Amino acid sequence: MILSMITKNSAEKVGADFEAVWVSSLQVPYRAIILVDDSDTPKTREFVKRFADAHGKELVVERSRLYGWHKPTRATARQTAIDIFFERFSDEWLFFLDDDFILRSGWWEEARGYVEEPRVGLVWGIDYTPRWQERAAWVRVRGFDEVTHAIENFKVRGGLHDTLLRRRALEGVKIPPWLNVFEDAWVKKYVECKGWEWRIVKTGGDHLRDETTGGYERADFYIMAYVSSALKLEPVSWRSFLKALLGLPGYVYYSAKAYGLRLALQRGIDKWRHRVIYRWLLLRHKRNEDPCHVVITSSLSPPR
């Protein structure tokens, strides 16, 4: 098994928790590390080299290959790791771990049973988000618990923060290099379209990113809708758009329950506007093409 991490100034951004991320990974029996590091300083790769040396792990370090795009993205970093995996190693499993994700004790004990199932091509662990207080409040007032919400979100868009991928399930994938977001959805859809099953590790781990620092740009919001529409991740219809358009009272009501009356109108309108725009963009980019054809042939062009 090979572990891969994509990083950009992670040692500085994650801080003291960066070591805890790596220590938590030792429960997984990987023998080598693929580090795709697009950092501005050498601190991250120097830390990972010390860790690899201390624990007897082979280490391969590269920057993102750009694949014809003009700058590194999450997609170029993921694809670089995947290509190195196929070029340099013959192992059956590639394990993606994010730089701010601490595996909970017992993650591997639960995951190893799924790895042994011959039809499983992807094993994903729930991302618990202890720092996302506002989102947690919103989820609770809507009647969901943390585990159910995380699983339903994964079913829509996948996730690569703590994910095992079988070699044959991943073989041939080409992630569009402009995907700075939803590259995880692309990979999950690819695995499904090749006929492989996925499993969920409920032990999961703690995602340390603050809820207001996702690292996304404004354009990424439009990419999310564009890719979601192309891959049919969510319903794309006038009915779903009209439901969002008429949903302002509900957003204000739940915002009042989650955040209090003082913030109810502001937060409710913000959430409502975001949802209406997103549903409109889904309609705008609606395609009749089979999503499996899209991911298998990697035929999706950047949005205009």
TrEMBL record:
Domain of life: Archaea
Pfam families in alphabetical order: Glycos_transf_2 (PF00535)
SUPFAM superfamilies: Nucleotide-diphospho-sugar transferases
Signal sequence, start to end: none
Parts forming coiled coils: none
MF term (GO), any: transferase activity
CDD domains cross-referenced by the UniProt entry: Glyco_tranf_GTA_type
Sorted UniProt keywords: Transferase
Domain named Glycosyltransferase 2-like: residues: 32-140
Name this polypeptide is given: Glycosyl transferase, family 2
Organism this protein belongs to: Pyrobaculum calidifontis (strain DSM 21063 / JCM 11548 / VA1)
